[in-house]
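Supplementary Note 2. Why include the ligand at all?

Several targets in our set were suspected to adopt different conformations when bound, so apo predictions alone were not considered sufficient. For every target with a known small-molecule partner we therefore ran a joint prediction. The input for flavin-adenine dinucleotide is given below.
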Amino acid sequence: MTRPVPLRKSPSGIGGRQTFVIVGAGQAGSQAACTLREAGFHGRIVLIGDETQGPYMRPPLSKKFLAGDFDEDRLYLRPEAFYRSSDIELMLGASVESIDASACRVHLNNGLRLGYDKLLIATGSRPCRLHVPGSDGPGIHYLKTLDDSLRLRAVIAAGKRIVVVGGGYIGLEVAATAATAGARVSVLEVGERVLGRVTTESLSSFVEKKHRERGVEIHCGSRVVSFEGGDRLRSVSCEGFETEADIALVGIGAVPNVELAQLAGLACGDGILVDAHCRTSIDNVFAAGDCTSHPSRFASHRLRLESVQNAVDQAGIAAHNMCGDERIYDRVPWFWSQQYEYKLQSAGVLEGCDEIVERGDRERGSFALLYRRAGALIAVDAVNMAGEYLAARKQIAEQTARPPEGVVPGRAGQRAA
Ligand code: FAD
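The joint prediction is reproduced in token form.
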């Protein structure tokens, strides 16, 4: 369904006769459209999204919304009337199929061809698919969209056997929500510990313990080899053992949606390569959010982040720069997760840590892990310790003020991760 909101006549001003097109109406796309208006851009803004809902936040999809404790209305980032009153044309259920960068035009699946003066690509990411025998069968879920969350919510119930494949944040949040609802939950993680890609053993062991206390079985070092069943899912097989299942949720990471950019000839690696000004390798084309790989003064390599912070902050910078500014994106990366009564908050980049200092009391479920490199604070993980976390985040921003050797902020073409 395409629902273009009629454009009101704009007063002339900055970019009055220009058209800025944004591909992807997610967290980053929506933020960019709003910031363009706040920055005084008076031209035409077209925000194109292939989902049928207006821009919404995804974090509750694995937490309170999945649990049924959060109304759908609250998911929407802004009411539809906001886009109308801000002269932002919201085209929903419409997908951009190609970009003709030499003609400055995008081609949509509904036949529309739209010229642009500047383009922002904010196409986000999608869940990695697990390709093993039976993985196309019934009862196997992925979680990215509002519709995915509604489908999953409809089948989570007390007594149901739910197998979560992948002990990352999304898998563990679903495990917590399902266990709280009384389901019998198993987590199958191929690595040696949960959250192995994002944090230290110290936090992983705390998280594993809390899940086990709620009756969640955690099997690390378990590689799924097949899903078994006929008309419905019956079990999930790993090398060496099998676990019964009514439902499986696969949460094994995400890949950036870069195909559109690649086809248009933009430089891509693990994400669309942007410089610190959110510019891509082609003039007048910017990118922001999950789909980008960007230089960072907090790391010795490019980062591709999947977080609300990155989507919002990077999109804001991109929007200002589309208006002619030269702002640099250099915010401290941060993230949060909610599992049971525990709010996990992380900031910084865990690279080259040589000292871990623990504050608080993990037995009471409130502590922080401060990660240092050569005496400087580089990252923090906190559990129910917001004050310590915020102070650490501020300190990280101050202490990591110098770019790592060999990294020149603001330019593309730095070493890919
Ligand atoms: P997306 O939100 O993925 O939006 C991109 C949009 O572009 C999508 O709607 C996509 O369908 C659309 N699109 C793609 N290609 C095209 C095309 N060719 N034409 C038109 N439209 C297109 N982050 C946190 O910081 N904390 C959390 O607790 C947290 N929890 C999460 C829980 C879940 C279940 C999920 C899925 C994510 C969570 N995240 C969390 C991550 C966070 O939501 C993302 O990092 C953020 O949404 C990224 O925003 P984005 O705009 O870059 O991408």
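Residues 107 and 294 are 26 Å apart (CA to CA). The chain has three domains: 19-126+255-322, 140-252, 334-413. Comparable summaries for the other entries are listed in the accompanying table.
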